[in-house]
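From the pipeline queue, job 12 of 40. The input is one protein chain; the requested action is below.

Action: predict structure.
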Amino acid sequence: MQLVFLGAPGVGKGTQADKVSVQYGVVKISTGDLLREAVRNRTTLGLEAKSYMDQGKLVPDLVVIGLVRDKLADPGYAEGFILDGFPRTVPQAEALAGVLDERRVRLDRVINFQVPRTEIVKRLSGRRSCPKCQATYHVEFAPSKKGILCDRCDEALVQRSDDQPEAIETRLKVYEEQTAPLINYYAAKNMLSHLDSAGSVDSVYDNLTKVLADRKSTRLNSSHIPLSRMPSSA
């Protein structure tokens, strides 16, 4: 199972990717996590990415594509993956198609998670994370039992710079301008499903599994047709 989870920041695609990963035994690949790890390790790419992330802007394609390419080359991803947060632009989608083509792998489905803008702002602005173990919380929906401390390691929770109000607005504007065209890109390939993710985590997951089951039942037998060679009406 090879999936892409598409949607604006804060729509809950990461949470759902975690659940699908456990249920179906596939690996979640979050470019956000990859980039933050590079920043923490102060790698060359990490330092370059940090200036963009702090402003809520997209990290340059070459940086992100390089990280994703390395991950997909790992044998541990042979059984399937969920790409969460990548691709974010049409050029990235085309680059991904090339990477998958090299490995004779095709995407099974692209899920577009949809939530009203006001709800997205509420979700992001209330998010808190642990700088040590990377656990995430929300001041309203999923607060830490220890208040301002992480339940796992007692580290003080922080609000990420890209979850500040100004950065949130920038992120949403960038998404609307650069990422939203992916909807048309994947729709033209008949690979896109829309999913209302404004409900509870469990209700959204129930609907998501139905979409995945429907796609599996109608999937082409030739599961290794390279994405870049698939006809737009496939």
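Job complete. The two ends are 18 Å apart (CA to CA).
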